[in-house]
Design goal:
Blueprint (H helix, E strand, L loop, with lengths): L6 E4 L10 H9 L3 H12 L5 H10 L5 H11 L6 H10 L4 E8 H11 L2 H6 L1 E9 L5 E4 L10 H11 L13 E5 L5 H4 L4 E5 L3 H9 L4 E3 L2 H13 L14
Parallel strand pairs: 1-2, 1-5, 2-3, 5-6, 6-7
Antiparallel strand pairs: 3-4
Helix pairs in contact: 2-3, 5-11
Organism: Komagataella pastoris (Yeast)
Protein name: BA75_03941T0
Keywords: Hydrolase
């Protein structure tokens, strides 16, 4: 296989999907939105780490896991531009990696339904997993021992090793893109060359606070056009950075 022209890393929930499936489960089948938001604020304020808070949210969902998946299949929708983005990337040797704090069985099932089996075969998913217990209950299985449960930046560095790409952007011959919407995407974004941050979500607030360069998006249609413009030489990475003062 020839060397990729670029690499696209993307969060899943709230980025590829319009709703966060984990939040949707918690709000509708678990502790409810008010309690979830309260835990989210504790995470943001540093009172509890993401790993602990997220597990508490999911533990409030008592429905068997297969029924949770059925519930999500009926309610979760895809960003309307993602399928075209995937198809173009696949045709143009730009691999896509889903880097997620969610659970792999949910992502796989939604990906097959919303995009197709070929996408499932061609997109690499790096995420947490799930353990189904004998009594039918279930628990999230975190990918690593960090306070995030899944340190997305570490996963990106592992991919770069696998692809024999330099971790130093100045020495790297191809651009790396990251698409996200939440705080857990911040560390991952630092390992890439251009961050696409979903409009109106908390990631933008944190990018401004932490001085992380980003460009805003509302749909993957915009992301695709930006990637095409950069790879064709029509525009440069710097042309898309909105907080240029950083």
């Amino acid at each position: 296989m020839s060397s990729p022209k670029a690499v696209v890393f993307t969060d899943w929930d709230g980025t590829v999907t319009l709703l966060d499936s984990n939040d949707y489960l918690t709000d509708n089948l678990g502790m409810g939105k008010e309690s979830r938001v309260a835990i989210g604020n504790q995470i943001l304020n540093g009172e509890v780490d993401f790993r602990t808070g997220f597990a508490e949210e999911l533990q409030s969902v008592k429905l068997p896991f297969d029924q949770c998946i059925d519930f999500l299949l009926k309610n979760i929708e895809l960003d309307p531009g993602f399928k075209d983005t995937y198809e173009w990337c696949y045709a143009n040797n730009v691999p896509i990696y889903v880097i997620s704090s969610g659970m792999k069985p949910i992502i796989e099932t939604l990906l097959v339904k919303l995009v197709g089996q070929d996408a499932m075969d061609n997109i690499t998913i790096i995420s947490n997993d799930v353990k189904i217990n004998d009594d039918g209950s279930w628990d999230i299985v975190y990918r690593d021992d960090t306070s995030f449960g899944h340190d997305k930046a570490l996963s990106i560095l592992e991919v770069l090793d696998k692809l024999n790409l330099d971790k130093d952007a100045a020495k790297r011959s191809i651009p790396l893109f990251y698409c996200g919407d939440g705080v857990s995407d911040l560390s991952a974004a630092r390992e890439t060359d251009l961050l696409f941050a979903r409009k109106g979500r908390e990631l933008i607030t944190y990018c401004e606070k932490e001085k992380v360069p980003y460009t805003e998006f509302e749909s993957f249609d915009e992301i695709l056009k930006s990637i095409q413009a950069i790879l064709s030489g029509e525009k440069k990475l710097a042309d898309f950075i909105q907080n240029k003062s950083n």
